[in-house]
Write a structure and sequence with these properties.
With 341 residues, the protein is of the alpha/beta class. The chain contains 8 helices and 21 strands. The radius of gyration is 29 Å and the shape is flat.
């Protein structure tokens, strides 16, 4: 028995047909793609190829091949059916999940099942399709982000104010940053240098100083301060490397450097530079551990961090228990000697 996993996601665009499982579904938008954009079939094909140890669909159906432009994705299933027959193998069970806020897919899942089963030469009873939504736990689409995400608004206004700042235009950049603070609760000085992929979650109370430097793919949670210390001029705000995550309420103060991949725990106060791939927590911040570098992994979990105080208390309790056992053992030996004499 072999098992494979598949996954696919495409952008919805106006003017294209929405096709899932080889079935056209009435909707105002369709999935972008070199072929018909059928993400269900693409995921199924990837799962089968994975089970066969044959790589992924991009190897066999590259989006650079003009002959595949607008191709029906059902062709992938027909090709895979032949491959399975050649190897004298068959589908044991196919369980799929489609996640979409709209349109409602439940009325079409039976037709999708029939289509997949037919083109894979298997029984419909072996094919299952579940249609789910994101339960509105995040933004449904780009339009909602544009209207309701304060972090996005603050970054957008910062990009404009920073451009004006670099052009040495007086007054207006600071006016824009204060306007952003008024409407979002996030204050970013126009002189700060911020790389791409920057994300502010919730954002209320975030402050980023004038000489702060932020690398690529950095995430800040609400209440974070990248501030200065004293009244010195020049570089007086922190530098954050790529892929840094700063938890709720953390304060990073002074012209220090936070290395690539560092995680700063909630409410920590960091006053000294932190080496790459480390975790820092506490007041003042303590560097607790280094991790294997995984720069492409975006980890938003800032609650699963070490607690050095409770760990030290646990160690002390263990030491006290060992001392108690040693005292009791020696007292027992002394009693035995006295009784024997």
């Amino acid at each position: 028995m072999r098992i494979g996993n598949g996954y696919d996601i495409h952008l919805l665009l106006a003017g294209r047909a929405l096709i899932l499982g080889g079935i056209e579904i009435p909707f105002a938008k369709g999935l972008q793609g070199h072929s018909d954009g059928d993400v269900l079939i693409h995921a199924v094909a990837d799962a089968i190829l994975g089970a066969l140890g044959m790589g992924d669909i991009g190897h066999y159906y590259p989006d650079t091949d003009p002959r595949l432009k607008g191709m029906s994705s059902l062709r992938m299933l027909d090709d895979l059916k032949q491959e399975l027959e050649k190897r004298m193998m068959k589908i044991g069970n196919l369980d799929t999940v489609i996640i979409a806020e709209a349109p409602k897919l439940a009325p079409f899942t039976a037709a999708m099942r029939s289509s997949l089963a037919q083109h894979l030469a298997t029984e419909e009873a072996r094919v299952n399709i579940k249609a789910k939504t994101g339960e509105k736990l995040d933004a449904i689409g780009q339009f909602e982000v544009l209207l309701t995400y304060s972090g996005f608004h603050a970054i957008l206004i910062y990009r404009l104010s920073h451009l004006l700042w670099k052009m040495n235009i007086p007054f207006l950049p600071r006016v824009l940053s204060q306007f952003a603070r008024f409407i979002t609760g996030i204050e970013i000085h126009p002189g700060a240098e911020i790389g791409g992929g920057f994300f502010i979650d919730h954002g209320m109370g975030v402050v980023i100083g004038e000489t702060a430097e932020i690398g690529e793919n950095v995430t800040l949670f609400q209440g974070v301060t990248l501030g200065g210390t004293g009244k010195e001029r020049g570089k007086r705000h922190p530098t954050l490397g790529d892929n840094v995550m700063v938890g709720v309420g953390a304060k990073i103060l002074g012209g220090i450097t936070i290395g690539e991949g560092v995680k700063v725990g909630a409410n920590s106060v960091v006053l000294k530079s932190v080496p790459p791939q480390s975790t820092v927590v506490g007041v003042p911040g303590r560097i607790l551990k280094s991790r294997d570098p995984r720069p492409n992994l975006v980890n938003m979990n800032h609650g699963d961090l070490p607690d050095p105080i409770s760990e030290r208390i646990d160690e002390l309790e263990l030491e006290i228990q060992e001392l108690r056992n040693l005292i009791l053992e020696r007292a027992s030996l002394k009693t035995k000697k006295e009784s024997s004499s």
